[in-house]
Each structure stands twice: as C-alpha cells, then as structure tokens.
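Structure tokens please, single chain.
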Amino acid sequence: MHEWDALRRPIWLFDPVSRRGVYANPAALELWEADSLEALLARDFGQLSPAAVARVERLARETADGSVVCDEWTFYPNGHPVTVATVISTYLLEDGTPVLLIEASPIAADGDENRATEALRHTSTLISLFDPEGRPIFSNPAAYAAYGTATNGFEARFAEPDRAAPLLAAALAGNAVADICQVVTREGLRWHQLDVRPVTDPATGQVSVLLDERDVTARIEAQNARVLAEQKTAMAEARQAFLTEMSHELRTPLNTVIGFSDLLATSSLNVEQADHVGRINSAGQRLLAVVNEMIDQSVGDVPEDEAARSSTGLAVVEAATSEAPEAERSGLTPRVLYVDDHDCNRALVVAVLEAQGIACATAEDGAQGLEAARTGDWDLILMDIQMPVMDGVAATRAIRALPGHRGATPIVALTANTLAEQKAEYFAAGMDDCMAKPINIIELTHMVLSWTSSDWRRNGPPLIAAVA
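Here you go.
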C-alpha cells in the first residue's frame, strides 16, 4: 500500500461488510477532508442509506470475480458534496479479506445533473434500462436491491413470463404502457405497478426500454382480501337463502301430512284405517327427520330445532288438556289470530285449537294480520314468517308500533325457518317465542295455553316458553 502514498490520485480501501475504511493515501485524505488516516478510519459509515447499502453490495458482487466497475459517485465529506469518477475493483488484504479498492478522480460538478443522479439512486422506485432484446443495461439501487445482479432479461422478472413480450413490444413500437403484474424478486413474489416506455440510451444512442416499478403488494393483497370477503359473504347469503327456501318448501307440506294424520288419529277410525293413518304419520316423521338432518348438516352447527317428533293421537291431546289448570279451562275462551299464507297450515292450526275449545281466526299475509291486530283484541298472535305482501318480521314490527294493549299482544313465530340467526331476527323484531313447523299437537296446545292463560294476562309472560 505504501506505493499508493505517492500517487496524486485519491485511492482508498473500504470494507463492504463492516462498512469502515481500511486505508487511504494522502490524496484521498485530502479529498475526504480528513486530518489524518486515523481520523478517516475512525469515521462510522454504518448509517448508509438503503440506496447506498444496495450500491455497495452490488459493487462487491460485481467485482468479486476480478471485474472492474467504472462509476460516478457523490461523497459528503464533512457534509458537503464532492462528485468523483471512480474505478472500483476487489482487493485482497494480507489475511485474505476482500475489500473494495476505489480510485477516484474529481470531476467538475453540475448541480442539476448531480441532483438528478442522486434522486435516481435514492428513489424507492425501481428503475431499469433494457436494450431492444430485453437484456438489462442499467438498474438503480432500488432495482438492484429487488432483483440482484442485472444478468436476467426483461422476461425473467415476471411470474408469468408471457406478460413480458407484449409490454416490451409495445415500448419498442414507441408506446408507453402500464400494467400491474406479479414479479419474482429476491424477497419472493411481489405485485408491481409497471410503467414501460421507449427512451434513447445516452451511452449508445440506441432505442432502449425504460422500466419503472412500484411495489403495490399491500394494495393488491387488500383488494384481493376484500374481494374474497365479498365472495364469502355472497356465498353465505346464497346458502342462507337456499336453506331458508328448502326448509320452507319441505317442511310446509310435511306440516300438513303430519298434522292432519295426528288429527285423524284422534277421530273414530276402525283398526285398518287407524293403521293406514299411523303409517302416513310414521312416514312423515321419517321424512321430517331426514329434512332436519340435511339442514343441520348444511348449517354445520347443532340442530336448530327438535328432530323427529312423535304423537300418540287422542291420548296426547287429552293429556295436554288435562294438564291445563281448571280455572283456565273454565274461564274466558282464548282468542288466537293465526297469520299464514298457506291454506292447509291455517286449516290444521284452526282444527287443532278449536278441538281444544280455543277460538282461532286467520289472516292470509302479514298485511292482513296487521289490520286484524289493529282492529281486534287477541290473546295471542301466531305468525308465519315467509309470506307475500308483508312477511312476518315486518308485520311484527308494525304490530309492536301499535298503541296500547294491541301493540303488546304476545306474538309467537310459527315457521319452518328456525336457524339460530333467523330466531335472533324474530326476537329483535319483537316476537316473544318461536315454534318450528311441522307442528306437534301437544307442543302447540301447551304453547297456546301458556301464552293465553289468565295468569299470563294478569302477571306477564310464562317462565317457560314453548319448545322452539
């Protein structure tokens, strides 16, 4: 190194790993405005900017095989800029440690050019230049940090290489084009917004392609997450609508089959007729169990309503009646309004309740039910949910808005739609209870008697509501 001391060209050694100076000749000390070699070597270069770090790493890699790099660099001894032309190579110390050998020649400073050069080096935008064949001829520190040594062509940056050729061709045809593509960086796959345009290479005068890249991975991932969430929401809503429709369309006819077979079982039938009715009821119960299991599995949760139920005909109905307090049976006849758009459902509930001495009027949709609630006095309103004109939830909200005791009439949902979130909606609308279709005679009778008892009318709702 002593032979370098006599040279007028500034020469110094820099360790790219520890980011400290190793040696500097007197011309370099003067360039760096250092009083002594010890003072220069004591300076801490560990706080280099990301662009400078990437540049040092690139120089170490590109000169490791004995190559020489000529570059222009601006240094800041004691805080003010000094621009030099450099020749950089790798030099091995006596212990074999590779360091950068830097030979510098001061050049006349051009303020605007230096500013442009520094901006290019420190910008976070990735800037690369390619020849017409797509071979890289320049990359700024940000591009180098993302891709490493610029040895791979334009196409190699793309996760989908087929996206590269149209962009390169468009730029060579004189057009500026933009796109968002997934690229392969040293950190893995990233999303970059690309700006590709034709420029003239100032070193050769040839047409070349300038590629500007900005990392937009966070934005794209957020957009993808939002789209995925919207898709999941749409799928959940479609699934909910399907379950609701399937529950309604399957359970409604089963309500008729099971309910009327229960009623027939209480009538005067001969042995053969009773056997036929029992078979009909049993088949309906098995089908109901299958429907319940299908819906429960689709929901992926615990069963939302009771599985297959069984009735024992007249004995069950009589047992339900006998359990009602004598004072209730001998008091005023309860008046029940049943709102349902299905005529078979209305006929079944009327038949069941009237067999127990309970007066039951009906309405065919929520709007009729609201009018009946506004003009009549009812002890209980049984409300279907899925109806034309006005559904049961909307009708309940409207009834709860009525003044006086009419707005406080107990309302119980009688519906095939009894998923947990559906029940929550019913209760939020002002319903007091929920009972699932197909109805069970004993449960329906218990529920009506509980909500219409004189004790309820005096003291408020029962402590134990109907089975839902």
